Amino acid sequence: MDPQLVQTIIMIAMLFGIMYFFMIRPQQKRLKEHQEMVSAIRRGDTVVTAGGLIGKVTKVIDDNEAMVEIAEGVRVRVIRQTVTDVRSKSDPSAATPPKPAND
Fold this sequence. Notes:
Distance between the termini: 86 Å
Shape: elongated
Number of helices: 2
CATH topology: SH3 type barrels
Order of helices and strands: HEEEEEH
CATH class: Mainly Beta
Structural class: alpha+beta
CATH architecture: Roll
Radius of gyration: 23 Å
Strand order of the largest sheet: 4-3-2-1-5
Number of strands: 5
Number of domains: 1
């Protein structure tokens, strides 16, 4: 086999390896993090949509949609995948204060 051909094949393999570690792998990691964030959206969370709207989630309709209040009395249905950021998470346990223990 020609040594120049072997070098070319090794260079192509190295180039693919570099592209994988610097481009493909980080993109897959970001996609996984986004999917986890979207699946964790709950009522009371403040979210930002891809269109730039900021609102509070009033109802999670199903796995694909959520109802978001963008102004007082103005609610819109958004596709959950269009949520780009969750600014503040609601804490359901904070809504009900703990009961004091009776000693």
